[in-house]
Amino acid sequence: MSQTVKGVISRSKGAPTELVDVVLPDPGPRDVIVKIQACGVCHTDLAYKQGGINDEYPFLLGHEAAGIVETVGSDVSHVEVGDFVVLNWRAVCGECRACKRGRPWYCFDTFNASVPMSLTDGTELTPALGIGAFIEKTLIHELQCTKVNPETDPAVAGLLGCGVMAGLGAAMNTGNVGRGDSVAVIGCGGVGDAAIAGARLAGATTIIAIDRDPAKLEWAKDLGATHTINGAEVEDVITAVQELTDGNGVDVIVDAVGRPETYQQAFYARDLAGTVVLVGVPTPDMKLELPLIDFFSRGGALKSSWYGDCLPERDFPMLIDLYEQGRLPLDKFVTERVGLTDVEAAFEAMEAGKVLRSVVELKA
């Protein structure tokens, strides 16, 4: 039997979010209903709201979430009722060409729920990243659930569902940062600071945070940066990075902004044969122009990081264990805890650069 719960939607481009009644149908054979305990407020949700993803309104926002499995479909075997799970938007299919080539972190055919959620008038909702978690309960595919330590704070665990995992993975998976490496990160919001935390965890000895906001640079130091560069105060960011690395540049640099000017800085601020990782998301109109000879003569690798090139079943439990051991300070990313009625204000705080993460908590 279907049920009605409260959820936050974006009805049209740029319109304020609304807290409305949402109808959850019975789950399909491999679907599950998860009672949401916490969900981070991510830039991707804001992009949906502003029309930066597509125009398939109305959107059910939220995707960076953790909760308890409440109901399972008839053929579900991956999780059970009562499991504490982090939701993920890369439900590895095992059948696409990436999976069959042994690269499931590039899976091209992820799973979503087989039946849609809707408004009470029957209007179907488009869930953000196939999840939709600014809601009391959501309907997803069983493989969009990853079981983790049930003792973990849901507000912390849920962060692995998107932005924090993207940053950690950009450093640890895509950038393959190793012990003794030098690393720089351009853009010290939630994703960039997660890349800094990942570089520290991987054993980098020089970690340079680059931003134009002094408050963000302080956050970066708290999460592992050994040096900071304020882009508004130095004449040239590339020279500033080289001065901190014996004139060489860094082994790995992560662009968590995703603009042509920051990518160009990243390209030239790395050492010869160094690696550039792009994890900031550019807009479709952006263009990059660089001399082709510089691509050849500098060598190294230019990579894009999708979701931190993560495997949720491999990475989420491991990272939660590291958090519980005190080795990964995931809790430092939680700036404020808010309710479902506070999502619009949380978006405003995020745009103003006042938070690393606002997290919506849903009380039992």
TrEMBL record:
GO terms for molecular function: mycothiol-dependent formaldehyde dehydrogenase activity; zinc ion binding. It comes from the Bacteria. Residues 14-360 form the Enoyl reductase (ER) domain. Its EC number is 1.1.1.306. Its cofactor is Zn(2+). SUPFAM superfamilies: GroES-like, NAD(P)-binding Rossmann-fold domains. Signal peptide: none annotated. InterPro entries: ADH-like_C (IPR013149), ADH-like_N (IPR013154), ADH_Zn_CS (IPR002328), ER (IPR020843), GroES-like_sf (IPR011032), MycoS_dep_FDH (IPR017816), NAD(P)-bd_dom_sf (IPR036291). Keywords: Metal-binding, Oxidoreductase, Zinc. Belongs to the zinc-containing alcohol dehydrogenase family. This is S-(Hydroxymethyl)mycothiol dehydrogenase.
